[in-house]
Design brief:
Blueprint lengths: L4 E3 L5 E3 L13 H17 L8 H4 L16 E9 L4 E8 L10 E7 L12 H13 L3 E6 L10 H15 L8 E11 L1 H14 L8 E7 L10 H5 L8 H11 L29 E9 L3 H13 L4 E10 L9 H17 L2
Parallel strand pairs: 5-6, 5-7, 7-8, 8-9, 9-10
Antiparallel strand pairs: 1-2, 1-10, 3-4, 4-6
Length: about 350
């Protein structure tokens, strides 16, 4: 079992480390192969001029179809929101075998990672992650297919995420009868966690008929800035995420001429959109990893939320990497599911 340090909204240590952190990163061979493959794909399809070779990327686009018939207790379907911009979501629903029939279930809006540039809800690893969340919590999962950069830059991804919230609020019958829209959560990993934050800010300034957002599940959010942090300097070439890769993604995503201190990237920096005055901004559960170059930006986000008077919990896994949650063979992946289950249960009361 890996070391875990968890902090409450007051910054007090909630759970002591279970084991001392290892001195060197150690990953199972299965994980090492998968990480190498993901890195190979992202490095191969990125061009120096800031564009993506989408034709080549299609050769590596290993997707899973929606499955209306339950698989291990979870059925899925794709719901179109706006065909003109290919805006849709994959809906994951537990069957009575997982959740007793008629039992109200929380709704989690999930935004996938990929540097705003890669992947979709149909990509096999995200299909698997959302199935796992739907089964373990249990919950209704709305996995959003947002537009990708560089073809669609900021704020397209935020617009798409917010518009799916609006769509579900206006079309509750698209979700199963068990869906409790009074207990909604925004969740995402990496770039998806960035989207979840900014969608939450918009939602806090808006009104909804049925949707009530109770929390944000922020898994290793993709934040950054012009400054080089200690983690970026120490780990410029880490597994999955490198400093060169993040710089490229920010350049492809942000408006032309803007640097990484733009408020979309440096969310707690000098140009930040303040949340202190947003009464409806929800509580945040934040996950970080010791071998993630983005970890310092993520911890700054946590500290900024606390200074802003917002509820925030930080869970640190010192001995793992960016995207650890995608690999069920890693113990931290299962531990994260347990933390999310507890958070949703507490916030959904």
């Amino acid at each position: 079992m890996a070391a875990v340090t968890s902090y409450t909204k007051n910054g007090q240590e909630k759970e002591a480390s279970i084991l001392k952190p290892k001195l060197k990163l150690s990953l199972p061979w299965k994980t090492r192969i998968a990480v190498s493959f993901l890195s190979f794909i992202s490095n191969t399809v990125r061009r120096r001029d800031g564009t993506i070779n989408r034709r080549l990327l299609r050769f590596f686009d290993f997707t899973s179809p929606a499955k209306p018939s339950p698989v291990r207790g979870i059925s899925s379907s794709d719901v179109t929101v706006d065909p003109s911009r290919n805006l849709w979501f994959r809906l994951f629903s537990p069957s009575p075998a997982v959740s007793p029939s008629g039992m109200p279930l929380p709704v989690i809006f999930f935004f996938h990672g990929g540097g705003f540039t890669f992947l979709s809800p149909a990509y096999f690893v995200y299909d698997a992650v959302c199935r796992r969340l739907a089964r373990k919590l249990p919950a209704i999962i709305v996995s959003v297919n947002y537009r990708l950069s560089p073809e669609h830059r900021f704020p397209s991804q935020y617009d798409d995420g917010f518009d799916v919230l609006r769509y579900v609020d206006g079309h509750p019958s698209e979700l199963p009868q068990e869906a409790d829209l009074g207990r909604c959560f925004l969740a995402g990993d990496s770039a998806g966690a960035n989207i979840a934050h900014h969608v939450a800010v918009r939602a806090s300034n808006s009104s909804f008929e049925a949707v009530r957002i109770r929390g944000i599940i922020s898994i290793q959010p993709f934040f950054g800035g012009e400054e080089r942090t200690e983690a970026e300097i120490r780990m410029p070439v880490a597994p999955v995420v490198t400093v060169d890769w993040t710089d490229w993604c920010w350049k492809a995503f942000l408006p032309e001429g803007e640097d990484r201190d733009h408020w979309a990237a440096n969310v707690s920096g000098p140009n930040a959109v303040e949340v202190a005055g947003l009464e409806r901004f929800p509580a945040v559960l934040l996950f970080t990893a010791g071998f993630d170059p983005l970890r310092d930006w993520q911890k700054r986000y946590y500290e900024w939320l606390r200074r802003s008077g917002k509820e925030a919990e930080l869970v640190e896994y010192p001995n793992t990497i960016h995207t650890f949650y995608l690999f069920p063979e890693l113990p931290e992946s299962g531990q994260m599911i347990s933390e999310v289950t507890d958070f949703v249960a507490r916030r959904a009361l």
